[in-house]
Amino acid sequence: MSGGHSFSPEALNSAVERCGEKLTVELVTPKTTLVPASVFRAEDAPSYLAALGLAADVNESVVCSPQIGDVVAVMAISAECLAYLSLLCGDKMSFVTPLLLGYAPKEGAVVELHGEVLYVRIFNGGMLFSEAMDASSDVDIVYYLQQIHQVYNLYNMRVRARGDVERIKMLCKGLFTQLECE
């Protein structure tokens, strides 16, 4: 994440050199959705986001992850950032999202907070729910978790917290019966 600031060209060049053959770019954005690989078509990627009300702005481009498991992630990225990364890396780069990375329990949930993006994944023998949400304020985070709880009984699951764990713990004091922090 750049935190709203530009990435240093030197830091990016150094990262590209260290990575050698392949560079994996993890995008932290609420403009993310997962599409079943069986129905995914690259040419339809912008429409998958638009169908959810997450259409890319005029200054954004849509990129896709490689297939991971049985899904493909579709994400919006700054067109300027994409152009710069493409210039630096060419075809050596791929994109991923926190929705596809890290711990995936057989049962339970993963709640991740990165900056102003909240990621929630729920599992029961497979992924039941996966969402990236714009969490600009603490109230947004509590609201989203409450809404998810009403449908999936989130607070009574074994939940693993990742990312800004301290903020999650502060906001969710006493809500989760089984909260594990990374």
Give structural notes.
With 182 residues, the protein is an alpha/beta fold. It contains five helices and ten strands; from the N terminus they run αββαββαββββαβαβ. The chain starts with 8 loop residues before the first helix and ends with a strand.
| Order of helix and strand elements from N to C terminus | HEEHEEHEEEEHEHE
The number of strands is 10
- Termini separation: 19 Å
Helix percentage: 25-40%
Keyword list:
alpha/beta, three-stranded antiparallel beta sheet, 5 helices
In short:
The protein is built from five helices and ten strands; from the N terminus they run H-E-E-H-E-E-H-E-E-E-E-H-E-H-E.
Compile the SSE list and pairings:
Layout: H1 9-19, E1 23-26, E2 32-36, H2 45-51, E3 60-64, E4 71-78, H3 79-89, E5 93-96, E6 107-114, E7 117-124, E8 127-134, H4 138-152, E9 158-163, H5 165-171, E10 178-181
Parallel strand pairs: 1-5, 6-9, 9-10
Antiparallel strand pairs: 2-4, 3-4, 6-7, 7-8
